[in-house]
Description:
The structure holds two protein chains of two kinds.
Chain A: E1 4-9, H1 13-25, E2 28-33, H2 36-46, E3 50-53, H3 62-71, E4 80-84, H4 91-97, E5 102-105, H5 110-120, H6 125-130
Helix pairs in contact in A: 2-3
Chain B: H1 21-53, H2 57-61, H3 71-87, H4 93-120, H5 148-163, H6 169-194, H7 198-203, H8 211-227, H9 232-238, H10 242-270, H11 276-347, E1 350-356, E2 361-364, H12 366-372, E3 380-381, H13 382-388, H14 391-407, E4 410-418, E5 424-435, E6 441-450, H15 452-498, H16 507-537, E7 546-548, H17 550-568, E8 571-575, E9 583-585, H18 587-603, E10 610-616, E11 624-631, H19 638-643, H20 665-675, E12 680-685, E13 689-697, H21 701-709, E14 720-728, H22 735-752, E15 759-760, E16 770-777, H23 781-800, E17 806-814, H24 826-850
Helix pairs in contact in B: 1-3, 1-8, 3-4, 3-5, 3-8, 4-5, 5-6, 5-8, 6-8, 9-10, 10-11, 15-16, 16-20, 17-18, 18-20, 21-24, 22-23
Amino acid sequence: MSNRKILIVEDDADVRLGYHVLLKSNHYDTFFAADALAAVSEARKVQPDLILLDLGLPAGDGFVVMERLRANIQLSMIPVIVVSGRDLPGNKERALRFGARAFLQKPWNDDELLRLIREFTGQPAAAAQAQ
Amino acid sequence: MIDHVPDNSAPGVAADVWMSESETRRFKLLRKYCEASAIAVIAMSCTVVCGWAFRVERLTSVFPGLVTMKVNTALGLGFSGISLWLQLPGKSLSRTKHSAHFLALVVVLIGVATLAEYSFGANLGIDELLFSDPKGSVGTSSPGRPAPTTAVAFIAIGLALMLLQRKTRPGRVLAQGLSLCSGLIGMMAITGYVYHASVVSKVFLYTKVALNAAVGLFLLGSAVFFARPRAGLAGDLTSEGAGSVVARRFLPAVFLIPILLGWICLRGEIAGMYGMELGMALHATVNIVVFAALVWWNARRLNKEYEQRSRAEIEIRELNAALERRVAERTRSLGLLTERLSLATAIARVGVWEWDLASKMSIWDATMFEIYGFTPVVPLPYEKWAAAVQPEDLIGVEETLRKTIEEKDQGSAEFRIMQPDGSVRNISVIQKAVLDDQANVTRLIGVNLDITERKRAEEALAQGAKDQIRFKDEFLSHVSHELRSPLTAIKQFTTILLGGLAGELSAEQREYQQIVLKNVRQLQSMIDDLLDVTRAEAGKLGVEPENVSVGEAITDSLNTLRVSAGAKGVSLECDLPPDLPPVYADQTRLHQILIILLDNAIKFTPGGGSVRVRAQLPEPDSQFVLVEVSDNGCGMSGEASERVFERLFQVEDPNQASRKGLGLGLFICRELVTRQGGRIWAQSQRGEGSTFSFTLPVFSLSSSIAPLLKNDKWPTETVALVLTEICYAGGKPGKEEQGEWSREVRELVQRCLLPNLDVLLPKMSYGAEGERFFVAAFADEKGALVLASRIREQFEGLLRGRRSGATLSVTYTMLKPFPLDLGASMENMVTSMATNLEDSIKSQTLLEASQP
Lengths: 131, 852
């Protein structure tokens, strides 16, 4: 069974690297996009199993990305986890309404993030552990 | 002046001449005297004529043996009397003027004719025209002929009567002089009778004046003299002047005393008590003495009066001076006041106006015209003002004006006007109703204030405040985001290092990395606090209450903090009664409150101490659950325990080892608890530890759903309680997934409801393997069936997109029908329906519980 593919949409290079180290060591393949435009084209190209999405992005925010993903029949089924540092009231509700499966506040808890990823990529906890 | 008094107006009646009371009385008396004299004379002449006609001598001569009054004398007296009567003031003169004149002329003619007879020794045959006079009558030269003095008197009186209508002063004086002549003639004759001066009369061969004729002439003369009492010579006697007063005092004496004294002296002489020379000397001396006494008495009275008058004059002068001083003072202070007021209104740009309700005209002061930019017009029509007011404001201002008039009170309004040059100004008006004697509103008086600058400043200030708040919110939101990104990176790599993903760490490295991680967490919670405070101030601190188990929230919070408490050596204890009812609160916020309180308690408790959480119902059927977090740490002063919930409040920490926070945690706690309908307080004693207590309302289905049920029109009289229950396949999923299911099913159910009518009730409880959603559907049984099948269909669609499975069951119960129009208030209906629903839900839940 090949590794699950995770697309990381994040404009901060350090945070991207942090994701990469964490996810790589947990046997995920990582792909990156630094802005809203790249996010959609990368998703189309890579067809990831899950997307980690930041809300504050250059060239359109995370909501725009979710809208574009939902408009595409192939991409609309990819689970999205929003990881945001922008804490406006109602952002969480709005993100969920836009189709996100979960909302995490930066800085997140690694264990919780990994659990959510496993859940949404359809890996039972035990299976992920075995890999 | 006196000459212009209208003659036909009775003295004392003339309203246009002011007279004192005594003057009025005097004139009245004189008029009466004139009238009485005229009547007396007329009566006398009638009597005499009758006496001649019936040959009764007593009637013509009064005393037997005295000279008789001749017929012509009687006629002359009678005509004069009538003429006088006709010409007395107050008689309608215009018609009788000519007859009065004619009669006077006849009198003159009688006199002239008689005199002519005497002068030329002729008999014109007029003496015995009516009745014959027996020859040799007493004191009569020619039978029936009046005495020559009488004739003279007739000429005088006749002329006087003819002149009576003259309104010039010479005419008046002449008339009065003539009447005096006739009066004096009469008087002389009377005096003669008094002194028995028959000798005198016999010297001449003239007819003697009869006694009654003498009296008649005297009466007539004096009456004619006083017929115009205010004019000419009579005026000098009748006025209020000092001269007149003196004259009035003297005249009677002047008339009577010499006559009386003369008579007494004469009697003495006749009785042979003294000779004529001595008699004359006596007469003169007594006269002198009597008149001197009279003069002295008069002088004394005058002096006294003069004294009184001068004293009164001085008093009046003083009063006048005082009055003038007061008037001057008042005028000066009024002037000052007016000046101050107008200066103040001008400086403050306060325009003063007055509006007359009847004429709808206004009077404005200069400032008003300045404010409106009008050229001054007095008075100003209402329409001109109304045209200047902005149309959308006019209705409101007119309304307050109307109200002020109706309530007879005062009012105020604000409005905008447009000046002739098109610039708009804000005006504030205050007006007061002015009442007349009958308490009717006749005018409004008020002020206008140009408040344009103030309005602009206020708007700018409000805008500034709004901008500032928005800027602060944006700033904090931005800062928090920007702070979180680097924090995220720090935390990421610290955890990576700690996780050994970059190679194994030494024990020391691991410890240091733990310290970094701990500080990151602190920083993170500070940022969260900062954002919460901003929201609390903006009133945007979101609270979504639902049915929450306090016990669960406490256990969760204790689990979160167990590690850090353990690290410090603080033990955590918990006291939860098993039958604690759920509360109506926001689960996340309750968790937040508990974490803040517990975190504080741990922070201020030294190692080896303990923190204890207790939840209870203070009384068996209390509406609130009480939660207490107590520690046995350092405690704080009474004042501090009151102020501890203030923003940025910091307790001086004797335990310097632990770091201070932002001082926002307890402030946020208070906001959150209050917002959820509870109360929070602290009890503490220095060195004895602290107890923080808060309450939250017990969850009551009826009270929480009552507000949702309000609706103006329900289509049916029945309510269906629809229960949608979801059961997860393969046991209870993770919290995140459970939350997701919950949210999705909730949205699904909401989509199937009739908008603005059916109500999805708040979450009641967490089921063990699933979740329940209750709907109050305003439908009959058929409608409930349709709703149930719609929810099921929707769920099939939802299930297709999910990886983990779940099953859904939809059931419904019909509630008791409720009366739609029973006159019951909305409140009552809603409350009873809510209770009804609650009972129904409880019975279902119990049913479930009883069949495991």
